[in-house]
Amino acid sequence: DGDGEIVGFRGVDRDITERKLAEEAREKLQAQLTQAQKMESVGRLAGGVAHDFNNMLSVILGHADLALDNLDDSDPLYDALHEIKKAARHSADLTRQLLAFARQQTVTPKVLDLNDTTEGMLKMLRRLIGENIDLAWMPGADLWPLKLDPAQIDQVLANLCVNARDAISGVGKVTIETENVVFDEATCADHPYLRVGEFVMLTVRDDGEGMDREVVDHIFEPFFSTKEVGQGTGLGLATVYGIVKQNDGFISVDSEVGVGSTFKIHLPKYGGELEEDTVSRTDVRPRSQGETVLLAEDEPAILELGKAMLEKLGYTVLAASSPEDALRQAKERVGEIHLLITDVVMPEMNGRELAERASSFSPDLKCLFLSGYPADVIARHGVLDERTQFLQKPFTVNELAASVRKALGDS
Fold this sequence. Notes:
By secondary structure, the chain is α/β, with parallel strands linked by helices. The protein has helices at residues 17-69, 76-101, 114-119, 122-129, 150-167, 185-190, 213-216, 236-246, 300-312, 323-332, 351-359, 375-380, 397-407, and strands at residues 110-112, 133-138, 146-148, 172-183, 197-206, 250-256, 260-268, 292-296, 316-320, 339-343, 366-371, 390-392. The strands form three sheets. A five-stranded mixed sheet has the order 2-4-5-7-6. The chain has a five-stranded parallel sheet with strand order 9-8-10-11-12, sandwiched between helices. The radius of gyration is 27 Å and the shape is elongated. It starts with 16 loop residues before the first helix and ends with a helix.
């Protein structure tokens, strides 16, 4: 009014709910993108160092293996060499965990029953978590088949159970369950993290301390850990995440502080029939039956080690430090060479090309590929398929012996 007092007002209200929801969704997507980029970067780093690291581990593990063969277990050096071998194995496992997280792990998928695979792990898992924690096993009926590397199931179960054990103070319980689940479009619309389709669900539940939302948001990051320094690598759940993604599955976590945590892994149903696993795991070291092997490897230390291993197994070995050298020897020894063992990635030409050209001299030539590179690099060189004989570095004398006989056609 004339005295400057407010006697009325006019306002406009605008509902900005949709805009706020859109902003929240955009921020969530940006956070997911940032997380994905971070994990992809670490994955590329892991894949990049894997080759050289695995080559060096091959030298350490192989020479320790050969030295142990020449010593009696009462020799003062025996225990020291055995510890070196154990450390090399542990380092190789750590590399595999990194590659599993990066989804670049070399795998041998098989059609399997998740119940059978899990039951085979129960005894080891009970030892792993300790007597003060009860492990309950609740298998689902008529489980659908899956196709993946059974060793990856072992890794997933071991890492989740260790994670559960560490979350329990004193006495507690860990429950492992399996069941078939089907998600339709309506269900997926209400739960965006789900996918339409038929899945086998593996659930690992504990009644431990639980986690708050901030911790849950980071648990699959490599090297993220709530444990004290020296009590974990921070790769356990990152490994689980990588394995699940590598097998086209997905994982969800439900956790509450003071109540516990539940991890649910969904793996896609395999449409084919179950296959009988005819692979026998044995420590027997099969030897040569008089064959000649051409070994092609551009890393001198690996070439020397491989030659020593194969000669110890009784093979006649032709060593080649380059693909051209290998082709020259293949041409000079037409009909005499039974098996080509070659590194996948080499200068001049890759292992697949070398095998094809060497086969022109000896059509019946068998081939075994070696590599310390991760699976995606090997696949780009046309090596990984169901018919290819492949051995991942590092390897022991026993593993090489078995792979050579398999490549030569022995059952």
